[in-house]
Amino acid sequence: MHTYRKTTRRTWRLGALGMTVAASLATTACQSGDGKAGEDASPSKPTASATRTGGSGNTGGETGGTSGGDGGGTEEGTCTGTNTHVTLEFALPAHKDDAKLLLTVTNTSDKPCNLYGYPAVRFGQAQSVPPPYEDSKPQAVVVLDPGKEGYAGVLANQGKEDATTEKTLTVAFQGKNIGSDTGEATSVKLPTTEGIVVDDTIHVTYWQDMSENAVSPLFHP
Predict the structure, then answer these.
(1) Number of folded domains in the chain?
(2) Strand pairing report for 9-10 and 181-187
(3) Is 155 among the domain residues?
(4) What percent of the chain has pLDDT over 70?
(5) pTM for this structure?
(6) Is 22 a member of any domain?
(7) Contact status, residue 209 vs residue 54, Cβ threshold 8 Å
(8) I want to staple 140 with a disulfide (CB 3.0 to 4.6 A). Which of 71, 83, 166, 197 is the partner?
(9) H helix intervals, 18-141
(10) Over the chain, what is the mean pLDDT?
(11) Range of the domain at 150
């Protein structure tokens, strides 16, 4: 049985942070030419599948959720800051690469919920939502059964000189329509008290049902 820490939730509007499909795609296109995240040996990038079974991740995550076969998810509801618990950890040992991060969301309710789109992450007082890696978009909505986990990868920086160190993080969830606001943002504890180095190349992956699928795109930005 999971034991969950009480988290502080804040309400903030995704629209106010520039959460629109056009803006995200434009930012992604502009930054697609940036350098690689590192030279570490990396797993091969998996191909999204419409039917995936949950499995343990390469960072020790528990069994993930299942993907809705028709791409529309279930009708039981949306995953939000009130029915989930979110954690953040390094995808690799911090001494090796502290730019690659893994978000894990656990359904703490007694009903399935849908993980739509990608997480709206906000380090510090950032005024915009990091764009997603479009190639990481799964073919179906990730559905979390009670107690199951979903995942998203975060590439915080690519070594730019104007990077900043941030010590707070909030994560908000999207509704069925990309850019819609679920009304809740959850404060997430960082994996280090020293903070996370962030620059303007920050990207996230779409929600995944296996941690391998969330981590792999971070090696092939």
Answers:
(1) 1
(2) antiparallel
(3) yes
(4) 65
(5) 0.70
(6) no
(7) yes
(8) 71
(9) 21-31
(10) 76
(11) 61-219
